[in-house]
Here is the input.
Amino acid sequence: WGNKIVGGSWRTLTNDEWQYLISRTGKCSLAQITISGKTYNGLVLLPDNWGGQSLTISNNNYTANKFTEETWTEMQQNGAVFLPAAGGRSYDKSVQNLSTTGNYWSSDNYDGGTNAYYFYFSSDYGTNTNQYNLTYCGYSVRLVQDVESGTNP
Here is the structure.
C-alpha cells in the first residue's frame, strides 16, 4: 500500500491532499454529466486557478450541477476533473452503490496493517476524507501526476 506507482511519475493522493481538494469553497461539488446520451453521477473538482463555468455547491444533490457533453469537454480542457460515483466492492465481493457513492483510496495506511484511508462522497452523506477500511475492499483509485508550478492544470 503506497504512494508511488511504477516509474514514480504517477501516484495516488494522500488523505491530506483529498482533504485539501474538497475543502476549497466553490471548487468541488456533486454533479451529473451526460455524455453520448448516458448520464453519470459523480464529483467535479475544479483547479485552484479556475475562471470558467461555476458550480452550484451541493453536498446532497447530483442534479444541482448538470453538464452537457459540450460543456464538460470545455471544462475538462481547462483542468476540471470528474470522479464517477463508481460504488465499491464489498466484503462479499458484490458491487454496491453504483452511481450513488464514490469511494477513492488514498495512499495513507490507517493502522500500519490492513486498513487504509479513503475519500467518500454520496448524495446521502456529502464528502468525507477521514474514512478507513480494509484494503481488500474494491474502491476506486485516482492516479495523479505532479506538475511544476505555472504549467497547465
